[in-house]
Each structure stands twice: as C-alpha cells, then as structure tokens.
TrEMBL record:
Residues 100-202 form the Methyltransferase small domain. The gene is prmC. Transmembrane segments: none annotated. GO terms for biological process: methylation. It comes from the Bacteria. This is Release factor glutamine methyltransferase. HAMAP family: RF_methyltr_PrmC (MF_02126). Substrate binds at residues 189-192. GO terms for molecular function: nucleic acid binding; peptide chain release factor N(5)-glutamine methyltransferase activity. The lineage of its organism: Bacteria, Pseudomonadati, Pseudomonadota, Alphaproteobacteria, Parvularculales.
Amino acid sequence: MIFRKETYAHALARGARRLKVSPTAQLDARVLLSEASGLDRAQLIAADREAVPEAVLTRYAELLRRRREGEPVAYITGRQEFYGRPFAVNPSVLIPRPESEMLVEAALAAHPQRVLDLGTGSGCLLLSALSELPRAEGVGTDVSREALSTAERNRTALRLDGRARFELLSFADTPLSMGTELFDVILANPPYIAEGDEQAAGAARFEPHSALFSGEDGLEAHREVAQVIARLLHPSGSAFIEIGYDQGESAEAIYKEALPGRSVLTKKDHAGYPRMVA
Ligand code: GLN
C-alpha cells in the first residue's frame, strides 16, 4: 500500500478548517503548526510541499484539539507578544492585550525615573516601560505568587533583573510596604469586570478570575488603586489606569474623589472607547 504523506500546506489548510469557529483560524493554525514542528514562519513557507513527519502531525492534532476547546493560543504556546517583545504566559497570568500598550506609551511620554505597576501579572506593563527607559527602575506588585514568578522569568529574559523588583502585595497593603518611596509613574490594569458578567466570563474562562473580576460593580479595584495613587504618586507624577469601555464616567469619578487637586482625564482607545484614566 502507498501512503500519501500530508504536506505542510495541506496540514495548514486542514487546521484552519478545523478551527473555523475562531475568527483567526488561519493564523491560529499557522502558529500551532509552527509550535508542533519547531519551524518558524519562513521555514514553514519553505517547507510548503514537504511531508510533515508523523510525530509533528500527532503534536499538531493535540494542539488543534485544545484550541478547538477554546484555549487561547497564547496559553498553548506559552508566549504572547506585547509592545514588540515576547512575554512568557501561563494560566496564572492575564494574557497581555494590545489595548494595554496605550498605558506603556503614556508612561514613556512622562519620562519617569521610578515606575510602580499595580497587579503586574506577566509584568508586561512595567517591563515594557523599563525596556524603553534605560535609566528608570520600578516595582511590580501582585497577589499571586505564580504570577510573580512568571513576571520574574520575563524580567530575566529582558535583562531587567537589576532595575525591576516584584513584591507579593495586595493593593491595600502596598502603601505601607513602600514606606516613603514615591513614584513618578503609577500604572495599573486592574480587574474591572463586574462579578457575574457572563458574557465577559465566557471569553476569558481560561484566564485567572482575580485578574478580571472586581466586586459587584466591577469598580472595587479602582477604589483601591485610587487610594494607592493618593499615597504613592509623586506630586509632579502621573498615573495611567486601564478601565472598562463602560467605565468612563464611573471610574473617572472615583479617581477624582480620591485625588483632589489633581487633573483626572479619561482617554479613548483607537476603537473610540474609553480605555484609560490619566
Ligand atoms: N498588568 C498585567 C496586564 O496588563 C496584568 C493585569 C491583570 O492581571 N489584570 O496584562
């Protein structure tokens, strides 16, 4: 009997069809075949008409199965790009979102020496900012030990061990623990979804609950972050906080009340939704 081996081109097309529930089926299939084969994008194109080895097909089938069940590609590969750099991710950290790059841009424009990142997760905000600011240093906090060890891994990969420190702290415990240290820039992408918001839960069911949900109104973390800013932001410093698309007014009111005398503005993202309080 003669077997016709499956080519890379065929495996890609077949994978994309299997993933047709995903809006990024083609891309997902390519990333997963790349992961299964160890070939990068250019090597995959070059191998287009070659037969895929049996062991690669087996691994690929398993990755396609996980993706079909809704697991994010970033958790399957263990990596997500953010602000032009690769970050290690796993289910203990939120997957960095492109919308959050807006906070990094705002931080860079403020030219800080000292940066605080509240709820650092993978460390993506702090580490991206420090990578672009060769003389700055910073602190990232999180309540999850697993998240902090992921952030530490990313710190080492980006060669920032000497300039970034991570601490296991809740928002409420952060001011006391920092003593008299003040920061030029405070960043946070806090959890901001209301408990029981089923629609949001569905999309993020593989991600850590505590990274996403924040009390019945989704504003609990904003109230705590506002208190940290009141205590730890240098008088001439700036804070940039990510908010939900429907929190333009509610979050702005919280920060205004906690920070009398400071200017508080809501900024929209590229899609035109409120995305950040500055
Ligand atoms: N700071 C991390 C990020 O922006 C984690 C945020 C979170 O877990 N809510 O991705």
